[in-house]
Design brief:
4-stranded antiparallel β-sheet, 6-stranded mixed β-sheet, 115 residues, 10 strands, mainly beta
Length: 115
């Protein structure tokens, strides 16, 4: 069983930055594609960004392309999401998982973008 723990969220003004972390325990993350997802109030959870397990290739939702950067450190079993130029519409709870999701979701980390 893999446990996923997201951290790094917070309140930030529009245009600001945050770096989210995802720590996975219980099983190595390294052989799986990894993804970040988010869920805004009243909306379905949606894909945000993904990174391949072998190639390290990255891919993004159109809404975050050019602003967010996904990365991973397999030695630490940890993934990251650097978020720049944040907008109010980025406000959501952010989650990590494999992509496609295989594990029980963690508690997520709240990101609020507001002035």
């Amino acid at each position: 069983q893999v446990k996923l723990v997201e951290s790094g969220g917070g309140l930030v003004q529009p245009g600001g930055s945050l770096r989210l972390s995802c720590a996975a325990s219980g099983r190595p993350f390294s052989r799986y594609n990894m993804g970040w997802f988010r869920q805004a109030p009243g909306k379905e959870r949606e894909f945000v960004a993904g990174i391949g397990w072998s190639s390290g290739s990255t891919y993004y939702a159109d809404s975050v392309k050019g602003r967010f950067t996904i990365s991973r450190d397999d030695a630490k079993n940890t993934g990251y999401l650097q978020m720049n130029s944040l907008k109010p519409e980025d406000t959501a709870v952010y989650y990590c998982n494999t992509n496609p999701p295989r594990h029980v979701w963690g508690q997520g980390t709240q990101v609020t973008v507001s002035s």
